[in-house]
């Protein structure tokens, strides 16, 4: 998970934003309860989206929140669920499992300083990972399969963005739909998650193009468009083409979500899929525009 799947705050009503924060804070508490306080640092917006989507698909009860003190910042108050549902425990396990695989990837492929930092934290996270894997072995199996397939494509220098994004997209589809009971809603969640997973992978690749070019790391966009220097990287036509692909994935995720029957957290989910993903695309595009202006 990469932290791109989050709300567009300016477009949310105050009560919707408070609802989103309550889910986020509740998940933070559950991660600390299940895997220790240090594991709270692994909390992500993407895992919060998992709770929102699963509760929308599975639950018809509107959650009730209460006010309390944040353990990381006692001067701050937050809202949270006293007895959160199973979706939070699953999201906590997913957070640990996916963070473990991301750290493994850093250990194998990154530069020396990042590998050294990862090596320090890996023994701690490994213990948490074993606990999460014991609780949700299917989650661990799906993640391991996806990482293996992803690694094979990267080692083969796959230049197809569709092929490169598929393992991550399929993993999200399998993970998000695994515990959805209704077969029709299960298909809807799987398709929404697949399109979102594709968007996340390509968004991360888009965001990292300049870094990957400078350090000679794998990036499907660099290979697809045969980008070998920064001048080619900053061409407007390149970004228009990439953004077209990102918008297509985001739009399909939103269209699939529209078929979901649930109402719990629906307005927050609509904000993320309709406005939040677009805001992330625009932010990365602005960053490249600023780099281009520096070169003028």
What does this entry show, briefly?
The protein is mainly α. 72% of the residues lie in helices and 3% in strands.
Main beta sheet: 2 strands, antiparallel
What's the assembly state of these chains?
A: single chain
Which band does the percent of strand residues land in?
A: under 5%
Q: How much is the average pLDDT?
A: 92
Order of helices and strands: HHEEHHHHHHHHHH
Overall shape: globular
Number of E-type strands? 2
**Any low-confidence stretches, pLDDT <50, length ≥5?**
none
Number of helices: 12
**Helical fraction:** over 70%
Radius of gyration: 19 Å
Structural class: mainly alpha
Q: Strands of the largest sheet, in order across it?
A: 1-2
- Could you tell me how far the N terminus lies from the C terminus, measured between alpha carbons in angstroms? 35 Å
Features:
two-stranded antiparallel ribbon, 72% helix, mainly alpha, 12 helices, 296 residues, single chain, 3% strand
Notes on the protein architecture:
- The chain is mainly α and 296 residues long.
- It contains 12 helices and 2 strands.
- The chain has helices spanning 14-35, 45-58, 86-109, 112-135, 137-155, 161-177, 183-207, 209-215, 220-224, 230-233, 236-257, 266-295, and strands spanning 66-69, 77-80.
- The protein has a two-stranded antiparallel ribbon with strand order 1-2.
- Strand 1 and strand 2 (77-80) form a beta hairpin.
- The two termini are 35 Å apart.
